[in-house]
Give the backbone structure.
Amino acid sequence: MIRKDGLGWIFRFAVLSLYALTCLYPFIWMLSTAFKPGAEALNNPSLLPREGLSAINWRIFADVWRRIDFPIFFFNSVKVSFLVVVGQLLIYSMAGFAFAKLRFVGREFLFYCFLGLLFVPPFAVVLTLVPLEAKLGILNTHLGVILPIINGGAPFAIFLFRNYFKTIPHEIYENAILDGAGEYRIYATIYFPIAKPALATIAIMNFLGSWNALLWPLVCLRDEKLFTLPLGLMYLNTSMFVQYNVLMAGGIITLIPTIFVFMFLQRYYIAGLTAGAVKA
């Protein structure tokens, strides 16, 4: 006889399994579409080609590699995403530390001003950024792509770091002050090293956002040699007839780095979100 708690476990397992399959199906469909012949990409609802495994197009990824300047686009995406993540971790961890531990006039007001920026849609500032960057001479440069993305991640990053640092006992800060350490030394040697969950959470979220960014690089960049992978993949859709198998193969190549980053940092990800939500 199955106990009541056993039935509950089975029900939860079934619901979560169904949800997981629902989430995974688009990726499975994308993978299967990439291996199908072009004529079957949308006409064949099956996950396998009509002629079976023998009809799988194993050369599709090599074809995608040849069609676009993949190494350059890949390097550009790595460069932009890496600098975005490093900039946000350094700048906003210091800002979060200041809002959590330092006393200065207008601290709470400034914090809630940053928090209010969460409600500003990113698309609303695109048109104002173009003339500003043109005057600064950074339009059509990677710096012009990186700086707005770093700035766009400020509200949530500051919120998470501030709340995470507030969960650390204030006595640690006071003892370090009594030992003669300055604020920057306290931040760099005590608070930053123990903020791995928050750092990993911000790193994952902003790496994914900057790696997949399309709108702002599309507006900012003109030189093809500066294009990131999402922009490079647009070249796969320039023919009269959309080749969905080629597009899906390119999308899978773009997804691989994000999967590895998430797998590497996932154990810190949930811990960072939970810790940052404990105290507002």
The mean pLDDT is 82. Residues 1-58 form one domain.
